[in-house]
Amino acid sequence: MQPELDMFAILPEDKIPEKGKILISEPFLPDTFFNRSIVYLTDHTPQGSVGFILNKKLDLQASAAIEGFEGWNENLSMGGPVAPDTLHYLHNLGDLIPNSIQVEGNIFWGGDIESIKDLIKTKQIKQSQIRFFLGYSGWSAGQLERELKENSWVIAKVNSEIVLNNRGDDIWKKVLRSFNNKYRMWADFPDSPEMN
Length: 196
Hints:
Elements: E1 8-10, E2 21-25, E3 38-45, E4 48-53, E5 57-61, H1 62-65, E6 75-78, E7 82-91, E8 101-104, E9 107-109, H2 113-121, E10 130-140, H3 143-149, E11 153-158, H4 160-165, H5 171-177
Parallel strand pairs: 6-10
Antiparallel strand pairs: 1-11, 2-3, 2-11, 3-4, 4-10, 5-6, 7-9, 7-10, 8-9
């Protein structure tokens, strides 16, 4: 197990969104959906951006929601507010899942769902190798850049283990507490400052 500080590397002056980076919401972001969230970007082009929220676990197991996932008792995550009735997945299985797209390093996005079902059925896949999301987070052309100028997000680069293995709500605080800069203080801001 790596020390926690080795798993995160903040780029506090970096305002360039790229696939493979995370977006960390500022603590008082008024958007209730993205409040205190971490979004992993899987695509960023001049036409827009796509990502998945890493810290919004649903009270719904994949086996109960998806046909062919019998015995897969991992909870689904809410990937974002766009198309919440669609299934998406991030994994480190590479070529084992045909048609998957490499995001960066050993993180892949999507691919053939029937291959995933076969791997689940034959117990050739571990829960630490794949994450399932309902919906996704999306930004139209120039929208994310505007939000960054408004200081709604901080961009960071993280170890790929964070993407697949940290599924709890506390990842937002864990990431912020690992930084040795002004953003570390955000982790201890109360949810409602007027209650402090």
